[in-house]
Write a structure and sequence with these properties.
two-stranded antiparallel sheet; two-stranded antiparallel ribbon; 198 residues
């Protein structure tokens, strides 16, 4: 994490950040034992003029995501899949119908070239199959094979069981609150990114 993850502000800005943390149930003092708390303390020591409140949230979201994905990728590695390949297979499974490569690019937030490469690899492994469009030769339709469906259905329960175990540290009310807050943040971020693409 760098100084750009904090927001330059005067003493009043830092105080506002700490006050906001108190209002939302925090102490405003990153005295916890997690790695982000240590980073924030270091920045406050060398740059007390910076409001590090955003780092306490964004840093923890990023750290949690990295740790969760590292563990969740274990069954994928055992199956010889990358995260990106599994996301593609998962998109086909959860939508329940054929998708075009363009559909898959949108569903998995990937480039068309990346999807084409992954489809080639998954087709060679017998996990997906393609058929041409009868009206337009330029269009292909992709679906899971039985082997692809069985693979996804075998991996998903293991991933969900792991996620349930991780979240068990929070009761149902706190899980619901966290899901709502993250949903609000994600909606705003996705809306902002969509606006930038227009």
């Amino acid at each position: 994490m760098t100084a750009t993850q904090g927001r330059p502000a005067g003493g009043d800005g830092a105080a506002r950040g700490r006050s906001a943390a108190v209002r939302h149930g925090g102490t405003g003092d990153p005295a916890g034992g997690d790695t982000v708390a240590a980073v924030v303390r270091q920045w406050r020591s060398v740059r007390p003029d910076l409001d590090t409140a955003p780092m306490e949230i964004i840093g923890r979201v990023n750290r949690c995501a990295a740790l969760l994905q590292q563990a969740e990728d274990a069954p994928l590695r055992r199956a010889g899949l990358s995260r990106a390949e599994f996301d593609l297979l998962g998109a086909l499974r959860r939508t329940g119908h054929e998708l075009t490569p363009g559909d898959l690019a949108r569903e998995t937030f990937s480039s068309g070239a990346a999807v084409t490469k992954r489809l080639k690899q998954l087709t060679e492994r017998g996990l997906v199959e393609r058929r041409g469009d009868t009206r337009d030769r330029r269009v292909a339709h992709v679906r899971l094979t039985d082997a692809g469906r069985d693979l996804v259905d075998g991996i998903m329960p293991e991933q969900l069981a792991y996620e349930t175990a991780v979240l068990s540290a929070l009761d149902a009310d706190r899980q619901g609150e966290l899901a709502g807050l993250l949903g609000d943040l994600l909606s705003r971020l996705e809306g902002h990114m969509q606006a930038l693409r227009v």
